[in-house]
Amino acid sequence: xxxxxxxxxxxxxxxxxxxxxxxxxxxxxxxxxxxxxxxxxxxxxxxxxxxxxxxxxxxxxxxxxxxxxxxxxxxxxxxxxxxxxxxxxxxxxxxxxxxxxx
Length: 102
Prior knowledge:
This protein is an alpha/beta fold. The protein is built from three helices and five strands; from the N terminus they run βαβαβαββ. The protein has one domain: Spore Coat Polysaccharide Biosynthesis Protein SpsA, Chain A (Alpha-Beta Complex). Helices cover 30% and strands 27% of the residues. It has a five-stranded mixed β-sheet, with helices on both faces.
């Protein structure tokens, strides 16, 4: 079963590395990871690009806000299970990924 994890983000330079690390430590054999960046201007996209692995897609495109970015990520996802998170919703000590079955 394939897992798709979507991070919708805009101008969260200080948290994107943490968000990405929390996805990378998931013990899932078949996983894709998509970062939907709505055109950040704080250097977030450059940090994400430098940390992007082969299983991560970084999308830079204007959107109409958080929900539009999330929906774009869901439409591109190819997994049977989709996990949603965002850099502003991280809490110390644990990841907050919400999974939804297709």
